[in-house]
């Protein structure tokens, strides 16, 4: 009898990610963690942060695997929910949670499209890089890349005072763009909309309420050209130059046909760049 108790405890421990109601715990926990990170940080979440990614580290337990012995395609979408919740808590907490008397809106998923490049074996470590890529008059688009975490390099977190979670390769230079793309397991685009009841709130208005967009001059999220959506890792924050509102609009419009899938899936994959500067890093539950 003790043997079966030990075996059951082991199986439950290895499958915590897929237990009943665990999705709710992971999702709302991620949203709260994102909000608390924004609240506790000593660095103001300034307007140029909107294009920076949030990184979530995770693994795929055996209960997520299909008959091909790798992560089932359907399980990618629950990971996407958690990763978007972290980023939404960081960026959009004022409007989602109605902080400081701001307008309260729901951020609703309208569509998700995902393409799979490489398989993820059981318990293999991977990262989800989620960022706001673009928006138009109605929709805001988030792009998520599932990336091999064993090939990553050291990063700096903007919104967390402690050192980065990933510290294995402090001095390693970031890999080239082509090599970075080879480390991508899957790419996903999520189209979302801000809703106040039945009223649609324009993304630009929502970003203004959250302090992420205005007509004033802002700093660049990268040191590279704003028209190049295939740039490599960002340079340190000290070397960031100034961006005008026109440059933000230009960068946004350059990504818009990509997230609308007008340029094919390879273009979505090539949006991934291993930035040296990220908003925050998290672990998905126990992983």
Automatic annotation (TrEMBL):
Keywords, alphabetical: Membrane, Transmembrane, Transmembrane helix
Gene3D superfamilies cross-referenced by the UniProt entry: Hotdog Thioesterase
UniProt keyword Transmembrane, yes or no: yes
Matching SUPFAM superfamilies: Thioesterase/thiol ester dehydrase-isomerase
InterPro entries listed in its UniProt record: HotDog_dom_sf, THEM6_lcsJ_thioesterase
Domain of life: Eukaryota
Entries under Pfam families matching the protein: 4HBT_2 (PF13279)
Keyword Transmembrane in record: yes
Transmembrane segments annotated in the record for this chain: 20-37
Family stated for the protein in its record: Belongs to the lcsJ thioesterase family.
Protein name per its UniProtKB record: Thioesterase-like superfamily-domain-containing protein
Lineage, top ranks: Eukaryota, Fungi, Dikarya, Ascomycota, Pezizomycotina
């Amino acid at each position: 009898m003790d043997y079966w108790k030990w075996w059951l405890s082991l199986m439950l421990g290895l499958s915590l990610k897929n237990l009943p109601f665990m999705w709710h715990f992971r999702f709302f926990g991620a949203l709260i963690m994102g909000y608390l990170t924004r609240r506790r940080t000593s660095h103001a979440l300034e307007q140029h942060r909107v294009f920076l990614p949030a990184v979530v580290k995770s693994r795929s337990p055996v209960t997520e695997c299909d008959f091909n012995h790798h992560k089932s395609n359907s399980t990618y979408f629950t990971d996407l929910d958690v990763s978007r919740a972290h980023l939404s808590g960081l960026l959009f907490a004022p409007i989602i949670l109605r902080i400081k008397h701001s307008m309260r809106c729901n951020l609703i998923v309208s569509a998700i499209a995902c393409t799979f490049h490489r398989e993820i074996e059981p318990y293999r470590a991977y990262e989800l890089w989620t960022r706001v890529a673009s928006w138009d008059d109605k929709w805001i688009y988030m792009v998520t890349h599932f990336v091999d975490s064993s090939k990553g390099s050291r990063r700096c977190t903007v919104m967390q005072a402690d050192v980065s979670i990933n510290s294995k390769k402090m001095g390693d230079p970031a890999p080239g763009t082509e090599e970075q793309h080879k480390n991508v397991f899957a790419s996903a685009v999520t189209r979302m909309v801000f809703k106040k009841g039945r009223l649609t709130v324009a993304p630009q208005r929502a970003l203004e309420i959250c302090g992420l967009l205005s007509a004033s001059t802002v700093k660049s999220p990268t040191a590279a050209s704003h028209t190049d959506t295939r740039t490599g890792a960002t340079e340190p924050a000290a070397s960031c130059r100034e961006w005008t509102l026109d440059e933000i609009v230009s960068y946004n419009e350059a990504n818009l046909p990509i997230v609308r899938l007008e340029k094919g899936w390879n273009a979505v994959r090539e949006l991934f760049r291993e930035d040296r500067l990220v908003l925050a890093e998290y672990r998905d539950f126990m992983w």
